[in-house]
Amino acid sequence: MYLCAMQILDGKIVAQSVKEELKQKVDLLKQEGKKTPHLAAVLIGNNGASETYVASKVKTCGEIGYESTLIRFDESVSEEELLKKIGDLNNDSTVDGILVQLPLPKHISEEKVINTIAAEKDVDGFHPSNIGKMVQGQPSYIPATPYGILLLMQHYNIQTKGKHAVVIGRSNIVGRPMSILLSQNNSTGNCTVTLCHSHTHNLKTLCLQADIIVAALGKPEFLTADMVKEGAVVIDVGITRVDDATKKKGYSIKGDVHFESVAPKCSFITPVPGGVGAMTIAALMKNTYLAATNHR
After folding, report:
1. Predicted confidence (pLDDT) per residue in 62-85, tens digit
2. Mean pLDDT of successive 10-residue segments in the chain (296 residues)?
């Protein structure tokens, strides 16, 4: 049996290198007296995970030298008021990128919010215009999590050409765009891709055929060792808070992969935390810099 030397895909290290590269570019803009990128983040309610994500994004802006604005609304905010605020940000020439932290309260349409954000300021890469351009291989803002995964794979020189990739999960935020990006004719693509979901038959059989598995379904420790072949590359997108009385916070963070059993079989694997999450924010920062450049 082939036994591989497993290597951790360290998102923190790669994200730090992305941030340092962007900081150098921003320092140069400041030296030249030019405007620095400005990201506006909108947070509705007080969901613990959303609070953490947005705080991390704002903090990263500060580290790189971006301007950032955090706009907060109560969970009871009307859809009309939220859409008006997004319209104001669209028309604000000092703002380069806009993100509205998901998930949203049930009375607000996610589709309306995404469609209202100006495509040229849509640094999350969710607007239909950006998704359409991505599908056609045109320059666009790539959704931040898939983009972060590509940056991570590039850094570790993971070969994708001719490989069989299985993507588990078909969300518009991760799974669906990830499947398209891995199939594109470029240096991080040229995979044969199988997109799996809750109605997929023989999921285990498909996973055992995969050279690359992207687990993005939001079920803690779903992918187990008996579903992974020796030498596979495993990308864990999941991040779920699981009750854990042994932890000071009362919960622990679990990915979609049962790390302890799967890792020994892999050539490369992302940890949770410290893997894809850090890269998502790094990719968002790259999109924001690109938006600022396009505006100039």
Report:
1. 999 999 999 999 999 999 999 999
2. 74 97 97 96 90 93 97 96 98 97 95 97 97 95 97 97 98 96 96 96 97 96 97 95 83 92 97 94 98 89
Q: Is 163 annotated as catalytic?
A: no
Q: How far is CA 71 from CA 35, 100, 109, 243, 259, in A?
A: 21, 9, 18, 30, 37
Distances (CA, A) of 72 to 8, 18, 84, 173, 238: 37, 28, 14, 23, 26
For residue range 129-172, what is the model confidence (pLDDT) as tens digits?
Answer: 999 999 999 999 999 999 999 999 999 999 999 999 999 999 99
> Is 10 labeled as catalytic in the residue annotation?
no
Domains in the chain: ranges and CATH: 33-118 (3.40.50.10860), 143-277 (3.40.50.720)
Which candidate in 96, 122, 124, 256 is catalytic? 124
The catalytic position among 19, 85, 101, 211 is 101
Catalytic residue among 57, 85, 265, 286: 57
Known active-site residue 209: no
What's the 3-state SS for the chain? CCCCCCEECCHHHHHHHHHHHHHHHHHHHHHCCCCCCEEEEEEECCCHHHHHHHHHHHHHHHHHCCEEEEEEECCCCCHHHHHHHHHHHHHCCCCCEEEECCCCCCCCCHHHHHHHCCHHHECCCCCHHHHHHHHCCCCCCCCHHHHHHHHHHHHCCCCCCCCEEEEECCCCCCHHHHHHHHHCCCCCCCCEEEEECCCCCCHHHHHHHCCEEEECCCCCCCECHHHCCCCEEEEECCCEEEECCCCCCCEEEECCECHHHHHHHEEEECCCCCCHHHHHHHHHHHHHHHHHHHHC
